[in-house]
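Our consortium's second objective concerns turning raw sequence data into structural hypotheses that experimental partners can test. To show how far this objective has progressed, the report includes one record in full. It was chosen at random from the queue rather than selected for favorable results. The single chain below, 408 residues long, was entered without modification.
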Amino acid sequence: MKKRLIFVCVLLLFGVASSGLAQAGLKVSAESGDSIKGAFSSGWNTPGLLFSAKTEGDFLVFRVRFADKTVQIRKSDDELKVTAIAGNKRNRALSAADKLALAGLFAALNQDKKEDGSLRSSLPCLVNFLEKWPPGMPLSVDVNSSGVRIGTEQYSREALDEIKLQTLLEDPEADPSCSATSEILQPSGAGGVTKSLCHRIGSVVNACYPISLGGAKVKTKCEAVLVGGTTCRGMCGTGCSDLKCGSQKYTQGCLNYDRCIEVFGVGSAYCNYIYANVVFDCTSSPNCQDLPGTWTYAYDWGCDGGSSLSTWNIYPNKRFADTGYKYGSWVFQEDSVLITYDSGCLPIYSGKVFNQRRSMKGTMACTTDRVATGCWSAKKRNTQLPAYLGSTAGGAAAISGPGPDSPD
């Protein structure tokens, strides 16, 4: 009886500590260059968590303790191990409350995250990776040089590597708009490289995923799909809710996973098999600017209600073209955008991007001696970008004359 009372008291103390920290949100109790320890809770009546992270050689070890279980992620550039320890085996799964607490911890850590390669810069990705854990996927994963184990199922590591390498070799013909941009390959993750798709947003790229896991042989299927669009396919995260590992990250591993869950659904064993590549890609790939794509925009010189429709084809090479074959350049930072024409009255469209980068609106103004201002709004379409026919530098391919970029 005495042991049982002590056990109950410990649980109560943990519950009070984790929920009582709510007013402060995140509390870091200790931090150094290679370790951090703390707690998080989002409210007095909501379960919280305790967490710690440290580097051990080539590995980053992240541990989070909930009221009924402890989950540990141990990750290097090409190995991943996820384990859960719970007194009751039925609790070896993340509850909705657990995921809510992880989402809050991620938001708190991400607020002051630095892009300096430190432990603090890598931690948000692991937290969000765990928060997005597919339902039904066991919290028992081991990816190493000898194989892949998910729960009690054992698979070939060679097949996992082949899926990644296959997408590198079987890519459809590159969009001409990307001819000036080389493939971005980072040494990391399963298969030895992580392929960034920043320069392919708006283009069609092969996505490969398993269609059979029977026996030692894993069968895969590759198909050409749009990167980006209104579903943000290929971005590491859930839909257009990115992992925010610094910014939006589009990678081959995340494209493969996104296409897999489109076909088989979240929690499918086929998709769980390649889920590890999401965290490999997220922690090692560069940030993207998620603006490229085909946009329908309405413009109204004078803001008097007499708007007209046109199309912007915004390319990853920082250039754009409209339906009147007029060209220009664009700049996107945080939620602000500048779209500058090379011709006509040289108008600049300035505005804000919202709705998870699928809508934008603002005002425009001529920058020549012609005085004119107006209003505009735009929505992204789920359409592949056409080939870019202009130059990569402003002015060379500009066509003068009347058009939607300038008032009549």
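The partners drew two points from this record. The chain is about 20% helix and 35% strand. The chain has three domains: 15-131, 157-290, 293-381. Both points have been shared with the crystallography group to help prioritize constructs.
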